[in-house]
Write a structure and sequence with these properties.
alpha+beta; 229 residues; 8 strands; three-stranded antiparallel β-sheet
């Protein structure tokens, strides 16, 4: 049963918010057999002893829901900036990106090389179709420049061929253009109501009600005879 929990040392004003979503997770095991998976919590526990705040915040029926909820809470509280939290990151999918400065493990060249090697090993086992889905048809990432339709800003990004399909730089630009298009469609529909159909016996077309009907034309439509089946 996945769940989120809160652990804290009120005397030192240090807290940790975490999640557990393994097969054998049970809220009753918190701080009985399970003492979090964080190294920072274990180090702090050795120095200052057991926490006086142990709470189970929420229980879930799915691991993904628990992960998303933890991510949402940590981002809302901005734990990676605050000093009172032992959490060093707020993202479960990219746990390194929120750690700033020299504390980021990717600053170490040995760890960085290992990460690159593991990535290459994974990609070597992937099929051609899987690589195309990830990196595009050419199988490689590259820099590309695309222009926003509303503000005409030229943006340079690192990505795949699929990323070139983006037409707007953000949601506000997309909303502006879409609203304009919707208004244009409404105006076209409104203008059609003020028109009439005229025909010359061969073809039909629409003109405004206030406009003069040309010679050899009259009100109405020309209907083509149906083909005999």
């Amino acid at each position: 049963m996945p769940y989120t929990y809160l652990i804290g040392w009120s005397k030192y004003k240090k807290f940790y918010y975490g999640v557990r979503y393994s097969k054998y997770s049970n809220p009753e095991d918190l701080w009985v057999t399970y003492f979090t998976s964080s190294e920072y919590v274990t180090q702090f526990r050795k120095k200052y002893g057991e926490p006086d705040i142990i709470q189970i915040r929420k229980v879930f029926d799915c691991a993904n829901k628990a992960k998303k909820w933890e991510n949402r809470v940590l981002r809302k509280m901005k734990v990676y900036i605050s000093e009172k939290w032992l959490n060093k990151t707020c993202s479960y999918s990219f746990p390194i990106r929120d750690i700033t400065g020299d504390n980021n493990p990717m600053k170490n060249e040995d760890i960085k090389e290992k990460a690159i090697k593991t990535k290459k090993d994974r990609e070597s086992k992937m099929t051609i179709d899987q690589l195309r889905k990830r990196y595009g048809r050419n199988g490689e990432k590259s820099y590309f420049i695309w222009e926003c339709e509303t503000c005409n800003k030229k943006i340079k990004k690192w990505g795949t061929v699929k990323a070139k399909a983006k037409r707007f730089c953000n949601k506000s630009c997309a909303a502006k253009t879409m609203n304009k298009r919707r208004k244009g469609i409404k105006l076209q529909r409104h203008d059609i109501r003020k028109t009439i159909c005229i025909t010359n016996g061969v073809e039909t077309k629409r003109i405004l009600e206030s406009a003069l009907i040309p010679k050899n034309w009259k009100k109405g439509r020309h209907w083509k005879p149906r083909k005999n089946t």
